[in-house]
Structure formats: structure tokens, C-alpha cells
Amino acid sequence: MDVELEQRRDMHKNNDYGGSLENGHGDNNVDDDGREKRMGTLMTASAHIITAVIGSGVLSLAWAIAQLGWVAGPAILMAFSFITWFTSTLLADCYRSPDPVSGKRNYSYMDAVRANLGTIKCRFCGLAQYVNLIGVTIGYTITASISMAAVQKSNCFHKHGHVFNCGAETSTRYFMMIFAAIQIVLSQIPNFDKLSWLSIVAAIMSFAYSSIGVGLALAKVGGHGGHPTTSITGTIVGVDVSSSEKIWRTLQSIGDIAFAYSYSNDTLRSSPPENKVMKKASLIGVSTTTVFYMLCGCIGYAAFGNNAPGNFLTGFGFYEPFWLIDLANIFIAVHLVGAYQVFCQPIFSFVENYCSINWPSSGFINTEHELNIPCYGTYNVNLFRATWRILYVILTAAVAMTFPFFNAFVGLIGAASFWPLTVYFPVEMYIAQSGLPKLSARWIWLKVLSWVCLIVSLVAGAGSVQGLVEELRKV
């Protein structure tokens, strides 16, 4: 991460809003720091957290609990929930520096890391963030294609019956190409990241397909087709899996649960103090999410037992009512079409700003060409922006086609991002800002938490890598 680039972008933003204050003219539309007035409240912050956290990660929870069992599964899910909430409260105190109430605002995660931990760790934070964003866009390509293929598969079963080999006619790679083609078009839309309706659509889609999944699982549990095998320890060695598979799948399932938890900040009003409001919002948001996750994971496990599918919506053993299965998978695909853009826009912005600043005289990078489009008006075409965004979408689709394995890839993303972004940086920033004495009781407790989470992330990552390798052998 180029620190100079970040600083220039901050200066540009300050110039956008700060002129009227510097000249002595107050403006009701700007905040006390000269930026656009923040209107976030406890309710909107809680809603944003719920919307951000509940996503495609919920689809793998039934499989994860099937590997862990009735005791370890819910316990580990609750442990991740507590850790996410706790570290989010530490992060809330770092929104302002050096004082959490009256200090200078940090406008991004990286700004907070730079203010509390310095430039070098800021660069590591940037690397972790962008690697995570790239991984998520690849994961979304895989997930969306699986859902698209599931629609075709359920319609095939409905038309030809369950004895027909519908799986042989379904290729996720074909749907990955369709998904990539859609993203190539959407990635050229200017200011796509500022379309506020995306969050609303994402929230509706997330709750819709998750609720359909829970409803279908409940229907299966209450049905008359017998009850699948479940156990306290999950999949049974010698029956469902071998001893080595049990170990690797257990580790991979931890990564899947880690992927299900992520975090989002909101632009809160300055009064009451943002950190206090954000802590309450985190409690509401993470608690609500955990209840929903428990429903999806536990009811999904009860419905499918130790043979729970990796994606509990696309792997249903029954395909009726087929239209409801189709609807749920369409919701997933629609959600991920927009979510892909939400996650790739920061990557686009960083690369384009970096190149513009470092090669200011390049016409290919900086020249805007006006194109008149009927019924739209003037559209500015930048050859570098258009070319590089197309190449990025193609690259993520190519990686997804190479590793089209939902659970293993999701577990790898979760394992790689959970420790640095959810645990390490919030803990280190809190220690630095609060000035905790070294080797004090609280300092030791926080360090132990960080190291334990690092070990968990490493073993979960190892399990996911082994899962990818094993899946590749089967291809």
C-alpha cells in the first residue's frame, strides 16, 4: 500500500468539503471536520452490520456443523461470534485517535492502523485487506455459478424425474463465464460503489434465501422420510469419513465459520460519541446474526445429518417445490452480482488512483474520451480503466474455474482474513492507543487471544488447502 497515495486521496476529500469552514462560512451539510455530515444512528449501524455479515457464508454452516457435531459446532460458532463482537468494540475505540471520544477521526481501517501502529503495519493491513477482497470476489464467482447451475439442475429433475442424471448436464464453468460477462459490463458503470440501493437489495436477498433455506430444512425435519443420522461429534469415522478426512474436514469447517463473520462500520453522528454507539450496534448486529446462523447451521444439520451438503440450498436431496429452490438460488445469484461489485470497487479505485498519481503524463491512463450514448447522454471512457477492469474480472473467473470448490475456497478465505483483520489489528491498535502496560493482566489476555486465533487460522487454512488439493485430485 502506497501511503503517499492514501494521503493525497485524503487531501482531495478534505478539499471537497473543507473550503466553507476554512473561510469562516458554516455549512449545515458538513461535519465538524469539514467532511460530509454523518447521519448514521444506532439503528442504521446495526442494520449495516447485519446486512454485511449475513451473506453467502451462511450457506456452508450446515456442512460445517456436520463435521463438528452438536457440541463443538454451536460452541465454535458462538466462540467466533464472541470474538468478532469483542474485537469490534476494540476497533470502535480506534475510530478516533489518540482519544477515542474527542480525537481525530480515522476515515478508514488503514487510517486507524497508520495512526496507532505506524506506516509499516499500515501497509501490511492494506495487503491483508486487498488480498481478502480479491479472494471474496473469486469466492462469489464460484458461489453464484453453483446457484445458477442448481436452478438448471432442479428444473431438470422436475422435468425428467429424479432418476435422470441431471448432474452430467450441469457445468458450473459455463455459468462462471456468464457471471463474468455480467461483471465486465457492471464494472464499467461509473460510481457503482455509491449506489445506495445495492445495500437494500443485498439485505433483502440475504434474508430471503437464508429464510427459504431454513424453511425448507424445517419442512424436511418435520417430514415423513425418516431422520438422517446426526451425532454429538458429527461425521463418524469409518462410516462417513476416514480418520484423516475427519481431521482435515474439521479444520476446514472452522475456516468456513470464520468466513461467515465479517464486520462493517457506519458513518455515525458525532453525538453521542461514535465509539459508544458503535459498541451497542455491534452487540445488536452480531447477536442477531448469530441467532440466524444458529438456525441455518443447526436446522440444516438436523435436516441433512452427517451428509449435509456443502451449500445447503444447492445440495438438497429433494427438489420439490422446485420453484422455491429456484427462487432461493436466483436470490443468491442476484445478491452476489451486486456484492461482487461492492468488493471489487475498492480494488479498482486503488489501482486506478495509484497509476494516475505515478504516471500523470500517460494519456492511456488519464485521458477521458466522451462517448454519446442514446437515452443516456455522455459517457466518459477511459481506456486504462476499461481494459484493466475487464482483465481483473477475467482473472478472477479463471481462478474460480481452476478451483471451483465452494467449501474449501470459502474456508481458505475465512482462515486467511479472520486473524489479521478481525483480531490482530484491533487488538494491537487498542493496546497502543490505551497504553496498556506490557505484561499487565489485560495485555497478557489480549495477546493470548491474538495468538490463539492465529493458531486457529493457520490450522483452518491448512485444512482448506488440503481440501482444495483433494478436490483437484478428483477432477
State the gist of this model.
With 475 residues, the protein is mostly helical. The chain is 69% helix and 3% strand.
Structure description:
- By secondary structure, this protein is mostly helical.
- It is built from 14 helices and four strands.
- The chain has helices at 3-22, 42-53, 61-93, 109-117, 119-160, 172-186, 197-221, 243-260, 274-304, 322-358, 363-366, 383-402, 406-434, 441-474; strands at 96-97, 104-105, 369-373, 377-381.
- A two-stranded antiparallel sheet has the order 1-2. The chain has a two-stranded antiparallel sheet with strand order 3-4.
- Strand 3 (369-373) and strand 4 (377-381) form a beta hairpin.
- Helix 5 (119-160) crosses helix 12.
- It starts with a helix and ends with a helix.
- The model is unreliable at 1-26 and 264-271 (pLDDT under 50).
List keywords for this structure.
single chain; 475 residues; mainly alpha; two-stranded antiparallel sheet; 14 helices; disordered N terminus; amino-acid transport; transport; transmembrane
